[in-house]
Design a protein that fits this description.
Strand content: under 5%
Number of domains: 1
Number of strands: 0
Order of helices and strands: HHHHHHHH
Helix content: over 70%
Number of helices: 8
Radius of gyration: 13 Å
Structural class: mainly alpha
Largest sheet: none
Distance between the termini: 25 Å
Shape: globular
Length: 110
């Protein structure tokens, strides 16, 4: 399924969106293990919810999402888990205001 290209980027958007809003995710603590657990939890919610998957699929032709998916700096930051690089990227942060991305974040954080 083509939407799997979006999952790492949406994971980063969800995690950055939560951090940007200043609201801790459920069970959030400090330390590397908790970050891995948080990422795994978000990934399970993204992949396990049909409504979230429909929202993800609806983003596949979004020009802003495509621009990020074609930006090597963003992809490298996502792969490396470099939250600072992502939050420092205006286009990445702007995507947090996309209504579909906000709906995904809302559903993931329920």
């Amino acid at each position: 399924m083509r939407c799997t290209r979006f999952v790492p980027l949406l994971l980063a958007l969800s995690l950055c969106g939560t951090a940007h809003a200043g609201t801790p995710a459920a069970g959030e603590t400090t330390g590397q293990g908790s970050v891995k657990a948080q990422v795994q939890g978000v990934q399970e919610k993204l992949m396990g919810d049909n409504e979230i998957m429909a929202l993800i699929l609806s983003l596949q032709n979004d020009p802003d999402m495509q621009a990020l998916l074609n930006d090597p700096a963003v992809l490298n930051a996502v792969s490396a888990g470099d939250i600072n690089a992502l939050t420092g990227n205006p286009r990445f942060m702007e995507l947090l205001n996309n209504p579909k991305v906000r709906e995904i974040q809302k559903r993931v954080n329920q």
